[in-house]
Amino acid sequence: MAYFPFFAELSEKRGLIVGGGVVALRKVQKLLPYGPRLTVVAPELGAEIRAIGGLDLRERPFAPEDLALSDFVIAATDDHTLNHQIAERCKAQKIPVNVVDCKEDCSFLFPALVKRGELSVGISTSGAGPTAAIYLKEQIEALLPERFEEILACLEKTREIVKEQITGENARKRLLRELFYDCMRDGRPLADEELEEKLRTAQEETC
Description:
By secondary structure, this protein is an alpha/beta fold. It has helices at 22-31, 47-50, 80-92, 130-143, 148-165, 169-186, 192-206, and strands at residues 14-18, 37-42, 56-59, 72-75, 97-99, 112-116, 119-123.
């Protein structure tokens, strides 16, 4: 059965990552833009993990007490037995857990992720075809203009202006759709004068 793609608020959530190598590093890098408070536990921590600010680093073996107060856990060691034991403890304590390379031990999966500003696209094949997920991620990234993050920020600001100045739900939806396609066509956010002209035209049409 496929996994349902929840989008969860991670800001200030407490995440525990067990492992200090390349796989753990990739998990840290994916998570940090979403604002969690991350603790990394491993007998040896890689230099790249050490170089990341804001992490709670514990250079020692995992202990069951590390799970205390964790909102989610990632078992990313190269010891499959240890990863499985961590998963069992998490499930007993109702803590969401992800175990690298072992879908059966996971209660949530990491998707192939596309992030541009406020846009997050998660792609999962429920473990059936990781290569397919990566391929689709690359295709989506290729579709997005380089300035897509700026476009989204512009559209967010523009949405409030349109709600204030344009009456009628259908007229607002039509204008917002037009503004989005204009931005995508040009690969950039709207200039202020362009938005003003679009608003004037829309207001005249609704009069």
